[in-house]
Amino acid sequence: MEHMHTNALILIAEDEPEIVDILKAYLHREGLRTVWATDGRTALELHLSLRPDLLLLDVQMPQLDGWQVLAELRRRGNTPVIMVTAHDQDLDKLTALRIGADDYVVKPFNPAEVAARVRAVLRRTQCQDESSTPVLRIGTLEIDLEAFRASVRQGEHLHSLPLTLTEFRLLAHMARAPRRVFSRGELIHACLSTESEVLERTIDSHISKLRKKLEDAGLPGIPLSLRGVGYRLEDIA
Questions:
Q1: Residue 67 is part of a domain; what is its CATH number?
Q2: Distance set, CA 213 to CA 95, 147, 179, 180 (Å)
Q3: Tens digits of per-residue pLDDT, 103-141?
Q4: Residue in 198, 187, 191 with CA at minimum distance from that of residue 226
């Protein structure tokens, strides 16, 4: 599968040339192409014209900051984004994941680690985009999108999860971006009927039942609840 990511185009949105030079060197070493935007507005323009495979997006930039750029990118589609923040603050990390980032790194960073994270995000997102494989696999969890069936692999055995349709929709929706935090409102809009008014506590009830079924299958503690923010599926071993 490694050939899938060779020659992928990475848009680096960063206003510090020294950092860009280091990132370029390590990404080129991985066989990846790069293009550079010095401000948020240029990053959005290059995204439209070049259709990069992934963005490395700094939070603090001229014109438009990283949060504004990320919000616009998510209105446009699902281009993978790794946020780069200068602050090792939980709020920054949660904000990045809540708005729709696929990952984040904190300055000062190890450029080799950044390159590895780029590879990992490309691998995950490009595999999910393959129309010939409508199965999401996250650790031992397997979700068949066509058969509406979710299973947990236990050795050679697949343990089928007895999910309701709503529980399956919630699980599949979060599994497409397991590190992202989904707000209750977003989950309501994406997974529940919009014909009637749905209270946010209804999502809590569905998630609670889903969590119990995953726990019974050997996957305790997921989805993870983030108070005041929403839910995240988390990485599954």
A1: 3.40.50.2300
A2: 29, 19, 20, 21
A3: 888 888 899 999 998 988 888 776 555 444 578 888 889
A4: 187
12 vs 187 pLDDT, higher one: 12
- The pLDDT value recorded for residue 197 is 53
Rounded Cα–Cα distance for residues 171 and 233 (Å): 8
Q: Of 225, 221, 27, which Cα lies nearest the Cα of 116?
A: 27
Domain containing 201 equals: 135-232
Distance, CA of 179 to chain centre:
5
**Burial zone of 23 (CB within 10 Å; 0-12 exposed, 13-18 middle, 19+ buried):** buried
Length of the chain: 237
Domain count, the chain: 2
Last residue of a domain, one of 129, 158, 187: 129
Looking at the structure, tell me whether residues 190 and 102 fall in a common domain: no
3-state secondary structure 64-94: CCHHHHHHHHHHHCCCCEEEEECCCCHHHHH
Last residue of a domain, one of 129, 157, 188: 129
Residue type, 166: T
Residues 6+ apart with CB under 8 A from 206: 164, 166, 167, 170
Both tokens assigned to 230: 């929403």
